[in-house]
Amino acid sequence: MVLCFCGKVDVVKTSWTPLNLGRRFFACPMNDSVRGFIGWLDPPMCARSKAIIPGLLRNLNSVQERCNELVRGMNMLQDQCNGLICKNNILVANVRALKDDNLKLKMYMFGSWFFFVIVFFYIWFV
To answer: Which GO terms fall under molecular function for this chain's record (predicted)?
Structure first.
């Protein structure tokens, strides 16, 4: 436990600057403090780590961005799918209505032919 100059317990933060990338340090817990940095918790990194870590972070960020693009694309496709399902439901309802209309027309047609046959036989045989 390390105490700050203000008397409060320090917090551990991580540096994201190019020279000390990923290195942890003690900082004043007061957000508006002029004494943000107090001291290093980790030893200095070797030159190889300083060269490799930025590339790894760039790769991680590009993979994360690609993942975000895929999620956005998936959400767009889901929205389109939902729209198509709604249109399909409307079309199914229209088909049912047309089938009902078709049945009614068949009944009218059968009735008119039946009436025609009765009238024809009445005229023919009377």
So the answer is: zinc ion binding
What's phi and psi for 90, nearest 5 deg? -65, -45
C-alpha to C-alpha distance for 57 and 61, rounded to whole angstroms: 6
The CB density around residue 30, as the number of other CB atoms within 10 Å, is 13
Q: Which of 113, 84, 26 is nearest to 105 (CA)?
A: 113
Which among 26, 36, 34 is positioned nearest to 3, based on CA atoms?
Answer: 26
Q: What is the pLDDT of residues 50-90, one digit of tens each?
A: 888 888 989 999 999 999 999 999 999 999 999 999 999 99
Q: Are strands 24-27 and 11-14 parallel, antiparallel or unpaired?
A: antiparallel
Burial class (CB in 10 A: 0-12, 13-18, 19+), 11: middle
Whether the Cβ atoms of residue 17 and residue 37 lie closer than 8 Å to each other: no
Per-domain residue ranges for the chain? 1-45
CB 27 within 8 A of CB 2: no
- pTM of the prediction? 0.54
